[in-house]
């Protein structure tokens, strides 16, 4: 396993640690281990960590960091130098201990999906492209257990890894101006769920009645990096009943 990293500033209040190059579970475990180590030993001025496919962005409040300098840090000429020193101590200790790269249990979240029809207008196209029947696409897509590598693009949008290779399909040549919230799509070798109504170019194969992003909730995003997702096929009637139940408890 590669135990080195690259570091660079991102403006005056963020520092980026690159821990790998590819999109794979080995790099993901390293990213999440780094996040866990930083979160467990927050330094003065720390704001948050944002994990991505192969990197961790660490945000901080410059004034708070500068005010919290230790005697050993008085020689530092910039806030960036102080933060880099603090994080390097944390991550060097982590990267030297390969046992810390073991998988964390994480959550398994089941997301119901109504495939095809008006909910999945691209299902037939995906089936034709892959040389499979629509039902085979549904069976393959709902038969996997997907890793949430990161949340990005839109609030609560999960980038999921682990999709069967047989389902890989290019993005649409012409993106849609509006994709309904809850739409489940495929783009390249990845699958994801649109939490909000946004433009997008992924091939839509279904839709979930579950809200993936609730801004007023204690945890606005239903999914977090490190979670696992399983898709459960449901009928159109079950979709409507689910939505009616959610609206009744909102």
What this model shows, in words?
Helix content is 28%, strand content 26%. With 250 residues, the chain is an alpha+beta fold. The protein folds into two domains: 6-101, Gyrase A, domain 2; 108-249, Cyclophilin-like (Cyclophilin), CATH 2.40.100. The strands form three sheets. The protein has a seven-stranded mixed beta barrel. The chain has a four-stranded antiparallel beta sheet with strand order 1-2-4-3. A hairpin with a 3-residue loop joins β3 and β4 (55-60). α1 packs across α3.
Summarize the structure.
It is an enzyme of class 3 (hydrolase). The chain has 250 residues and is α+β, with helices and mostly antiparallel strands. It has two domains: 6-101, Gyrase A, domain 2; 108-249, Cyclophilin (Beta Barrel).
Secondary structure layout plus pairing:
Blueprint: E1 6-9, E2 14-18, H1 25-40, E3 46-51, E4 55-60, H2 62-67, H3 79-95, E5 108-115, H4 123-130, H5 134-142, E6 146-151, E7 158-161, E8 176-179, E9 183-187, E10 190-193, E11 198-200, E12 203-207, E13 228-233, H6 236-249
Parallel strand pairs: 5-13
Antiparallel strand pairs: 1-2, 2-4, 3-4, 5-12, 6-7, 6-13, 7-10, 8-11, 9-10, 9-12
Helix pairs in contact: 1-3
**What's the Cα radius of gyration?**
21 Å
Number of strands: 13
Do you know the CATH topology of the largest domain? Cyclophilin
Low-confidence stretches: none
Portion of residues within helices? 25-40%
How does the overall form come out from the CA principal axes?
elongated
Order of helices and strands: EEHEEHHEHHEEEEEEEEH
Q: Tell me the major beta sheet.
A: 7 strands, mixed, barrel
Relative strand content? 25-35%
Classify the secondary structure makeup into a structural class: alpha+beta
Question: Into how many domains do the coordinates divide?
Answer: 2
CATH class category label of the largest domain: Mainly Beta
Average pLDDT, rounded to a whole number, is 91
Helix count equals 6
The span between the termini is 47 Å
Query: How is the largest sheet built, in terms of strand order?
Result: 5-12-9-10-7-6-13
CATH superfamily of the largest domain: Cyclophilin-like
CATH A-level architecture of the largest domain: Beta Barrel
């Amino acid at each position: 396993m590669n135990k080195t990293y690259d570091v660079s500033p991102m403006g005056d209040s963020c520092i980026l640690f690159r821990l790998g190059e590819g999109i794979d579970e080995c790099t993901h475990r390293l990213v999440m281990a780094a996040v866990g180590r930083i979160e467990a030993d927050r330094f003065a001025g720390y704001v948050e960590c944002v994990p991505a496919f192969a990197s961790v962005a660490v945000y901080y409040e410059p004034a708070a960091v500068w005010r919290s300098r230790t005697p050993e840090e008085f020689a530092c000429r910039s806030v960036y130098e102080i933060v880099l020193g603090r994080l390097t101590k944390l991550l060097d200790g982590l990267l030297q201990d390969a046992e810390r790269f073991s998988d964390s249990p994480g959550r398994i979240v089941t997301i119901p999906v109504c495939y095809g029809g008006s909910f999945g207008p691209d299902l037939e196209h995906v089936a034709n492209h892959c040389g499979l029947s629509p039902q085979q696409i549904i069976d393959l897509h709902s038969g996997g257990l997907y890793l949430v590598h990161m949340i990005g693009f839109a609030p609560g949008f999960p980038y999921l890894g682990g999709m069967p290779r047989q389902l890989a399909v290019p993005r649409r040549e012409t993106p849609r101006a509006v994709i309904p919230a809850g739409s489940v799509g495929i783009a390249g070798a990845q699958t994801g769920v649109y939490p909000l109504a946004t433009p997008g170019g992924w091939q839509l194969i279904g839709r979930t009645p579950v809200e993936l992003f609730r801004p007023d909730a204690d945890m606005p995003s239903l999914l977090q990096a490190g979670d696992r997702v399983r898709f459960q096929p449901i009928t159109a009637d079950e979709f409507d009943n689910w939505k009616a139940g959610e609206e009744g408890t909102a």
